[in-house]
Amino acid sequence: MKRRNERSITRVVIATGISSVVTQLLIIREFLAQFQGNEFVIALILFNWLILGGIGTLLARWITQRFWVATVDRLGGLSLVLAGLSVVQILAVRGLRDVLFIHGSSVGFYPTLAYTFLTIAPYCLVLGFVLPYSLFAIRTEDPDYPGTRIYIIDNLGDVSGGALFSFVLVFLVTPLKAAFLANLPLMAATYLLFTPSARRRPAVLVATALTFGVLVAGLLLEPSSLAPSEGKLVYYSESRYGRIEVHQDQEQVTLFVNGNPLYGNQNLSMAEEAIHYPLAQLARTRNILLISAEAGMLAELEKYRPESVDYVELDPRVADVQFRFGLIKRIPGLKVIHQDGRAYLSDSNKAYDAIIVSLGEPDTFQINRFFTDRFFALAKRHLTPEGVLSFSMKGFDNYLAEPQRQKLSSLYNTVGDYFDRVLLLPGQKIFFLCSARPFNMDIPRLLDQKKIRTRYIRGYYYGNLTRERIDRLNQLMDPKTPKNTDHFPQLMRLIFQQWFAKFSASPTGFMAVLSVLCLIYLIRISAEEFVLFSTGWTVMGSEILVIFAFQIFFGYIYLQIGLIVTVFLAGLLPGAWFGERMRWRSKTTLAFADGLIIVLMGTLIVVLKQIGDDLPVTFFLGFGFVISLICGFQFPVALWLRGGDAPAATRTFSADLIGAACGTLVTNVVLIPYCGIVWAAAGLIGLKLCSLIVIFASYEES
After folding, report:
1. Strand pairing category for 383-394 and 352-357
2. 3-state DSSP call for residue 256?
3. pLDDT tens readout for residues 141-155
């Protein structure tokens, strides 16, 4: 019976790991879809996930000691609750946003933090409770059962869940179908956890049926949970790169990607400006490159009768939906290329008369990478001697606010290093025209000479774009504003500051409170726990760095987020296994591991500075695996040094989780926006140097 319970609990722990990681990745993608692909949301979710998990772990020890002795039956009940909560959490994320916030409005940092915290709290608290509770349940029958073993078993489930999501579910099923499939093993393992006699009890049968009913209800509610508050949903698809929806309100058709309204079928002015502002400057228009496309742009482009038009769109389904709903049309010479625009330019040798970038405001790292120095250098190399690069930013009516002026100035200064002439044209959008030759600002006259007819530009250009207004905008550019680079994306820093300024808020208060709480916690913990705290901080900080660097250099984190998380989990398993079996376990061992982490982080800095764009995907994945392997190795060593009993297991689990939560948030909110990814990595090295000092200081005391 003793071995049977141990095997049954082991199966439940593995199934819990599978379910929890799939649920975590689904929730991250749900929040990305709810908050327009904003990568900062990823860190807020991970921070709350880890903090709540740490609280759940501490509660497990406190409640088990005082009120609720660990038993197999109680563990089974908790596991069934956990399986059902996964679906409830996803539906809550979808349904509560428009209840708590005005539909379509932007949401500030603190409301976003609170919203992510509250919506995932039930699931994360139960999840954090279940893992140590499983250990306590086994130890009621086997007091010598090692705590590290449950850590390894849980990690095995985590890695399996990450692999299942990254290689299977993300390609084949929608989110609630994925939640259904990922929780079936947990339901089966939980049912088998009960003794044969207990399985026939009405309470067990009803609880199991109820959990299964919740999972099935999620499948039935999936279409209605995505229905818009206005108009109707006429198309929905989960692609590898994002959530695609088409909303129709009477005759207005709008394409949404990750909750962001990209293109509508009734925005003729934007299509005319995007095409005719740059192309009117050209004596010939043979080869044109479009990086993404506004609705109506290809119809306007057809008027120039180009020989070839290369339309680059990363997501094949976005292009297909645009053609299907008539947002863009197929024209002679059109070639659709399903590749990242920046990667395409890196691989191509073709020269273009015009490169037109039709992307939104660079408020995410995925879009910002098309507004940095390296992209402008790429564009310059692929233009003919008199070619034109065109892109746009949000416009203004009468007054240019200082945050927007700084963003425009940063772009102006960056692109000015690569193009002799840079002209800004004001309007609903501010268009940048960049070339080696002077520009003619009388665009209606140029179009008349080419015998190209327009509706918006012909009727409104002279009234909206006066020479005085154009000159005034260009003169407002500040030459002292720092340039926007891959390693230090100034636009993201400015947008981050603007996010707080828009809501009259600041991250300073929150970070001050977090610092005080951290200081109180650090005073109360041992040297070994501080090592795990700093390692958890460094590993999760590194994971955030890899996510953001991956977004900068490759541009499709929505697809790869599962793989990155899986790789960071995968290293923990062999690391913990090796640390558990290592005979020579001491503080010197912990110090040696800290030294390896410092070397790894230093290597990351050098490689990012020297190679950057040329790094393969495998480098980032390999880095994540190795650094998590060292973290996994340190855990059993620190646990052994602390005695290995139940209180030590709880405290070491908590130190790792709390450190990871702090590392996630500080790296995201402070280090990357204000220091860039290189100096953020340097900050993590500094923390590990502090860890080394603590180890040697405690070694001398002992």
Report:
1. parallel
2. strand
3. 778 787 778 877 888
How far is residue 62's CA from residue 608's CA, in Å, rounded to a whole number?
45
Cα gap 243→237, rounded to integer Å: 6
Sequence-separated (6 or more) residues with CB below 8 Å from residue 636: 148, 151, 576, 579, 580, 585
For residue 234, is it within any domain? no
Enclosing domain of residue 520: 506-702
- Whether residue 256 lies inside any domain: the answer is no
How do residues 454-479 score in pLDDT, each as one tens digit?
A: 888 887 788 778 888 888 989 999 99
Tokens 């340097």 found at = 682
The neighbour count for residue 697, using CB atoms within 10 Å, is 11
Task: Indicate whether 375 and 433 sit together in one domain.
Answer: yes
Q: Which two tokens stand for residue 170?
A: 């993300």
Mutual orientation of helices 672-701 and 587-610 as an angle, nearest 10°? 160
The string of pLDDT tens digits covering residues 321-335 is 888 888 888 999 999
**Burial class of residue 346, CB neighbours in 10 A (0-12, 13-18, 19+):** middle
- Within a domain: 249: no
Q: What angle do CA 655, 657, 661 make, to 5 degrees?
A: 115
Looking up residue 549, the CATH number of its domain turns out to be: 1.20.1250.20
> Are residues 571 and 691 located together in one domain of the fold?
yes
Q: What is the pLDDT of residue 557?
A: 57
Shared-domain flag, residues 314 and 373: yes
Tell me, yes or no, whether 533 and 600 share the same domain.
yes
Name the domain boundary from 179, 203, 226: 226
Determine if the pTM surpasses 0.85.
no
> Using one digit for the tens of pLDDT, what is the confidence trace for 117-144?
999 999 999 998 888 888 888 888 778 7
pLDDT interval class at 399 (50, 70, 90):
confident
Q: DSSP readout, 450-491?
A: TT---SHHHHHHHHHS-HHHHHHHHHT--TTSPP--SSS-HH
How far apart (Å, rounded) are the C-alpha atoms in residues 376 and 477? 18
Specify which residues 336 forms β-bridges with: 311
Written as one string, the DSSP assignment of 358-423 is ----S-SHHHHTTSSHHHHHHHHHTEEEEEEEEEEEE--SS---HHHHHHHHHHHHHHTTT-SEEE
Distance CA 188, CA 79 (A): 11
**Overall domain count for the chain:** 3
Residue 1: which pLDDT band, with cuts at 50, 70 and 90? very low
Same domain, yes or no: 451 and 527: no
